[in-house]
DNA sequence: TATGAATGAGCCTTCATTCAT
DNA sequence: TATGAATGAAGGCTCATTCAT
């Protein structure tokens, strides 16, 4: 129903987390831009294949058909190119918007469902990168912060939504909004992780259905009646 | 009914996952045993301080006040001593508390609550180790398998319980038991992770209360009535 | 008649035994080629001075006035640079001088003598390397095979020659050609070994004369008469 | 024919080369002697299996079912136990005696044949040890000297015999006795090496026959006539 | 900009030898 | 005598980073 294109009323939508300010200016010449792009593409490939830790800059340079010297023309370190790789995926993971707070539970369920579906689809497309971020976050505090920040944005948005649901009397008011939204976002992100990153390969529609139902139930919402669905 | 044959009635309870067979024979002399133990203790300390990847064997040896040669007397590699470290924590993560399947939802809630509480407490005691396992799992397939296996055991137990709840009509029968239990266990483990591993330091009782309520709601169970609580 | 198709009429002549395929591409720049060459030269020096086993890669690097890192830019291991060292000496050990099978024993003796002389001279130039190969062959099966292969080629050529001598009635037909040629090649190679490698430093001309006479006699050939010599 | 038992007139017979003086006194107690013996036996086994260089003292101790500490009770080093291992084989390789100088070439041939046969048989029994000595000789000057010394004794004995043959007019007087005997002993020792150590597994009788014939011919001796044999 | 050779700190691993019990 | 734990020098190898061309 509500798609990113139509006003973007989603639950999980998150803003950009990777700092948009370039550490260094992008190359001016077209040739330079091409070289940089091929390095980023090669890096993503190598990272996804070997993991961040087991990857070597020489491999990235070779994969990009350039030299290691050229690598350092565009990036200062492995961390920096990893940031660049993440940035590419960033836009794809951005699917902002929250379901409008409507009295009609039927509509709420539909928006929630669409939002979860969008999240799972985006995760699917970037699963390997998510695993990578997971890995790098265990080593590098900067990326750990990035990952926490990312989760926080999601959680905060959901929290706002939960609060509005509670205020309008649709959701169970006795639930702590923050902890609840943390729990609910964890639920979908882990589901996505197991399915796409660890390769359990579940049916996306089943995931969407189950998670939507669980959210709905968990918040103490009820579908309008036996006629629903 | 839903409890394992061994008589351990737990929701989250897991059997030993770290292979109990010693890779090499334990030292014969008391002195040797002491040295081995001090190495394991030192390793845990160093791992928790520096992370698995950034730790060096020489640091572990120094911390244990032995030589690097002595390290190799007892362990073949960093991986091997990490396994030993995990083994120490293993028993602690085994915990009791499975809710008996009773018709009385009140009682179910109480047992579920106890079970979740026990899980959170155990996680709290071993949080840093869990983070470590998370890290090592991103690099080493063996530990990734261990981690997946660990999650699977938890999920399976919860799944059995969910199924029995569905059979007895207490829980929503339209929910897929496997996916649901995966979602529910993810919820608590991530909550624990954020709180204890990432240092968000929430109140355990609040976590217990919220997660129990969410499970309860999510499964479509209802407390007896307004008199409850 | 007994000469190989390639037109190389030798008794001891051997083809290339060290695999010519480069394990890794040769350096592109002139500078790189110079460095690689200096490493090979340094390795030969260090190997001859300290033996293969007692040599250290750091010594080779230092001798070549480079860093250990540079060593690994060009070679993967001690074995690999040893192969490169052997390759340099390879061409030198290929030498001409196969006696044509003529009825005239006088001539046979002369060609045989020339062939043996060439062998001894080549051995003298590469004696230390031969000792090294001997050493490495006792540890590493690959080099043992190389050494056996080398000996086999020599033996086979001599065997062909012996057979042709037997066929033309010049040599004793009751001798087993294979065993006989193994014995005869062993004779000269050991003589060379004792003289040049172990430093007994005999007069080459005396060695040539004696070995030629022994081969001649052993095969039951006779010089034309008392006027010979 | 003259056998080792009957006055031992052999060609290759050599005296003891391993210094008989014990580096340390043999153990006094019977138990100590047993331990020492089992260590030597274990060492031979391990050396033959792994080579001298790749063998470890701990393996020898384990194979002997004792501790490394006990090893050092009886031996100071790997070299020392290797010496002890060689000593055991020494007696077996000792088969002294030279063919009596007789005018009758028929008899000479017979003695020579018996002598060569005895040599090959002894070599066969100790082939692996000979390979080991070869290896150790490339690393350790002491053992290189031992090996050279060993060869020298053989060569000297043969040289004496060759000289006597020349003096009595049986052998070609134009041959240099030293170089000739070096050549002839090399011939049989290498034949033995290829057959027993490198596993070419030739028929011993064929080796005996061929080498005897070659020696005979090479020295310019002739069997009494067409009636011979 | 592009290249790729050069660098060396840093970490791992082995195993002969010592020594306390 | 026997044991086996403890030691650490020695050497192998990696790879991010620098730099001359």
From TrEMBL, chains A, B, C, D:
Residues 56-75 bind DNA. Keywords: DNA-binding, Transcription, Transcription regulation. This is TetR/AcrR family transcriptional regulator. InterPro entries: Homeodomain-like_sf, HTH-type_TetR-like_transc_reg, HTH_TetR, Tet_transcr_reg_TetR-rel_C_sf. The keyword DNA-binding applies. It comes from Aeromicrobium duanguangcaii. Pfam families: TetR_N. SUPFAM superfamilies: Homeodomain-like, Tetracyclin repressor-like, C-terminal domain. PROSITE patterns: HTH_TETR_2 (PS50977). The lineage of its organism: Bacteria, Bacillati, Actinomycetota, Actinomycetes, Propionibacteriales. Residues 33-93 form the HTH tetR-type domain.
